[in-house]
Amino acid sequence: MKGKLYKNRLTQILVIIFVLILILSTAGCQSKKMSNKDKIVVYTSIYPLYDFTKKIGQDYIVVENITPTGVEPHEFEPSISKISKIYESNAFIYLGEPMDPWAEKLRGDLAQKGIAVLKVGEGLIEGNDPHIWLSPKKSMQMAKKIYDLLVKVDEKNKAVYEKNYDRLIEELKKLDDEYKKELASTRLRDFVVSHAAFGYLAKEYGLNQVSIKGLSPQEEPSLKHIKNLIDFCRERGIKYILAESLETPKEAQALAEEAGLKILTLNPIEGLTDEEEKANEDYFSLMRKNLEVLKEALK
Ligand SMILES: [Zn+2]
Q1: Which of 2, 10, 155, 192 lies 20 to 30 Å (CA to CA) from residue 71?
Q2: 227 CA to middle of ligand 1, Å?
């Protein structure tokens, strides 16, 4: 009787020790996998840079975007408290003029403080059109620069970044092929947009972008320009105006009414709206929606 009791007690103790070891070891694993203090911290200026960086770094980095969700980034200026956070990070990625002039001003100072700074648009931006991410080919070059930066800052995780980078390039190639195939022989070759964000995309696939406003959505069109656009749409048999998601399409609406056109949304993917964020949209899902809209508008 006494022997059995002793044996039960021993089993109990052994079970407790076993459970303790299990708890300690999983806690250890989890902190190794999840702890943010071992990860490099990267800040990006606008959403497409955030999305590509996140896709290459995944759980191995902490990445934050400076331009908030729902905000149109062309005229955005971050607060001092947001800027001070960049100073505590390991790397800062921005696009370059004329997209994020506030970032250009920080560049020298950040570099001096030992933060790795990458201006992605350098050598990729032609003239003063910053919308390079809307061309999958240019996006591949952007991804390469971001990959190189992550490896430079965090060499020990190179294998992971390389694998994720390769996958991202594969996806961009697939996207490029879809655009090429679907836009090769549409009836119309001209499309009318609200702000001129799709120049690289148009050039890439042999299309012609005509815009109500200029390269920035804040530019106001002249009456003469609107009148010319109405004539242009009638001549070419254009049926749609392509407006965007982060800016109220006031001029687009006026033009559509005047010329009897319908409005569709073509997304410049400069930032997500709250709804897009909630729906887990990303660069690829939005680019594919854009392709569907273009196909409809060029039919
Ligand atoms: Zn823009």
Answers
A1: 192
A2: 23
- Taking residue 107's Cβ as centre, other Cβ atoms within 10 Å add up to 16
With respect to residue 62, please indicate whether it lies within any of the assigned structural domains.
yes
Same domain for 155 and 170?
yes
**30 found inside a domain:** no
C-alpha 80 – ligand 1 centre gap (Å): 24
Predicted TM-score (pTM) of this structure: 0.86
3 state DSSP class of 209: strand
- Cα angle vertex 102, ends 97, 104, to 5°? 55
Asked if 30 and 8 count as a contact pair (C-beta separation under 8 A), the reply is no
Distance 31 CA to ligand 1 centre (A): 41
The domain of 281 spans 185-298
Among candidate residues 123, 155, 179, the one where a domain is terminated: 179
How many Å apart are CA 292 and CA 294, to the nearest integer?
Answer: 5
Which has the closest alpha carbon to 118: 87, 97, 141, 91? Answer: 91
Distance 131 CA to ligand 1 centre (A): 6
Pair 165, 234 in one domain: no
Using one digit for the tens of pLDDT, what is the confidence trace for 55-108? 999 999 999 999 999 998 988 999 999 999 999 999 999 999 899 999 999 999
Domain at 50, CATH number:
3.40.50.1980
Distance 8 CA to ligand 1 centre (A): 73
Assess whether 49 and 171 both reside in one domain: yes
CA of 220 to the centre of ligand 1 (A): 14
Query: Where does a domain end: 179, 205, 228?
Result: 179
Calculate how far, in angstroms, residue 64's C-alpha sits from the geometric centre of ligand 1: 21
